[in-house]
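Q: What does the assembly look like in three dimensions?
Context provided by user:
Components: six
Sequences:
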Amino acid sequence: MKDKTDQIIKASISVFVKKGYIASTTKEIALKANVAEVTLYRKFGTKKNLFEFSVKSITDDKFSSVLEFKEEISTSDFFGQLLDNRLQVISKNISVVKMLISESLAGNLPKDLKFTHVIFENVSLAIKQHFSIKKLNGDYQTYSKIIGGILLGHAILPNGKSYHKLNQQEKEEYINKYLEIIVK
Amino acid sequence: MKDKTDQIIKASISVFVKKGYIASTTKEIALKANVAEVTLYRKFGTKKNLFEFSVKSITDDKFSSVLEFKEEISTSDFFGQLLDNRLQVISKNISVVKMLISESLAGNLPKDLKFTHVIFENVSLAIKQHFSIKKLNGDYQTYSKIIGGILLGHAILPNGKSYHKLNQQEKEEYINKYLEIIVK
Amino acid sequence: MKDKTDQIIKASISVFVKKGYIASTTKEIALKANVAEVTLYRKFGTKKNLFEFSVKSITDDKFSSVLEFKEEISTSDFFGQLLDNRLQVISKNISVVKMLISESLAGNLPKDLKFTHVIFENVSLAIKQHFSIKKLNGDYQTYSKIIGGILLGHAILPNGKSYHKLNQQEKEEYINKYLEIIVK
Amino acid sequence: MKDKTDQIIKASISVFVKKGYIASTTKEIALKANVAEVTLYRKFGTKKNLFEFSVKSITDDKFSSVLEFKEEISTSDFFGQLLDNRLQVISKNISVVKMLISESLAGNLPKDLKFTHVIFENVSLAIKQHFSIKKLNGDYQTYSKIIGGILLGHAILPNGKSYHKLNQQEKEEYINKYLEIIVK
DNA sequence: AATGAATGAGGCTTCATTCAT
DNA sequence: AATGAATGAAGCCTCATTCAT
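A: Here is the predicted structure of the complete assembly.
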């Protein structure tokens, strides 16, 4: 039954996000999923497996959107939209993001899921393309690092209001502060 | 005897850094410290306690240096030296830094040790002071976030050679790439 | 399987009776029950829980019989039968009784299991009823205390042969010695 | 220094009385005695030793008084005074008494300290003597058991006000209830 | 006489996982 | 497809006790 499998994944995500990989327990997950503990094992074989599946599930679901920009966009608008889009995503999924970074640093994520790479390469690629299209000769890699850093900062450093809870104007002002420094 | 206590702290740091708080085992620490497991408990009472003590020990030891700059320094040099100094520290202690960020995100660090705050506030303060001295009217907070982000990126994102292993010229080039974007 | 649970309870009773609550070990109980130690915990959650369950099990099993007497019984026969019945029970379960009193005094029994209350209230009630039926105006409470005391004495004070091992005639003689003092 | 030894005994008694032999801990005793834990061992060698010494100390101190009666006393007065005296002692030292009975039943007291024997033989002897002096031909042993039982009841069964807190008249009334049943 | 330091042994409990139905 | 029953391994922590000063 697809049903039980879904319940398990949903429950496992919620538990893993709250407690992290090691501190989470198959018992708690099973309980939350309204399923016998064995059922986890029948379906996923291993706690580690379930974890990896859950993480893949999350990343596919929340962080895999392709970044797209109009070709004729100005560089300033490009960075603005890039930041806005990513901050929105991170801000909305802050707990998940924190867990992923934490587990990534702890070495509990499989190589191909290294979340930080994902976030960074996504961004890096977009910037590279923009620079290529616009024939800019700035160092796109360093830009990528700066943007990536800003995003990490939002996930990790102490913050005020969540980005996604700001209103449109506040968001623009917020983004602009970065743009003023980075773009020209 | 100060001796055993030191052995324990050294061992505990090494184990905690390698495996993180939860996955570390008092048994392994004791073994590595050449000490009976009980001795940990006589001296620190609790695994958590030992962990916190170890972390405090590390941060005091490696991350508490006060950042100092000459008053007449140019803004560009200021940021350059700030980045150089912090990257050096982070790069030299990369494993420790990763563990600290990971545990911080996992909520296993006591409030007053939230490592990321420490790193960030240190930097933030230095920037604020420089802006004040130089009577610059830029937004020091956003600058702080950008610098903080760069540092986080270095701890978290995939990197090439460790910063502290670069030679002097490479370091300067590396820093300059950031400065070109950030300063003017 | 009811089987294992029963084995556990049987084993736990035997160990608890022999060593008392604190000195007993879940390991020993598990061993005696031919069960893995974890199984105790799956079934009872806690050593304390297992203990309380075992005690409840014992008291229900051995000490909960209702005392019944014919309405037209003489007071002397009443006390005789009462003593006989209770001495029989106590004597047959002397180890259990000792453990229960000991744990009761040590404060390791839950309120509703305070064994001594149970034994005493049982007796007290029977006496009250007899006095009521016979319209005797003696002080049933003091009688209760005396009878209760005699029973406690048998559990605690040094004794000769176990009451239940006496033959019928010896029992009668034994009981009569008390009756001669108490009943007129 | 007699001083430390005394502190230790005082502390050990208080702890043993509160928690019983097994649940008491040399650490707690040392703490309460303001003494290093080793000092206990230097002076008493063993926890068990300390316990036994403490118990002997208590019994010598509180329960060893010889019972004395005037030769010409009436049997009723004799039992009255006997009960009064013993109830007073037990009531005043109820916690100690409970612990001693409990440990006695648990088999943690050395043979020669079996508290219940002590209490009982004391009483038994007095009764025997009285019967001898008065040339009574009642069964002094059964009387001893009844009196012993009454005393045990007071230590173990649920009670109202402590005997030693009653006023003189209440005490007399209380004792008389027993005498009315037992004597004549 | 007194103690700080150290420890072997063991206790209760939890965890991920397998077995049998 | 699902689960109740069972477990080996291991974790944190505590206890009575010895050693060295």
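Follow-up: Chain A has a mean pLDDT of 92.
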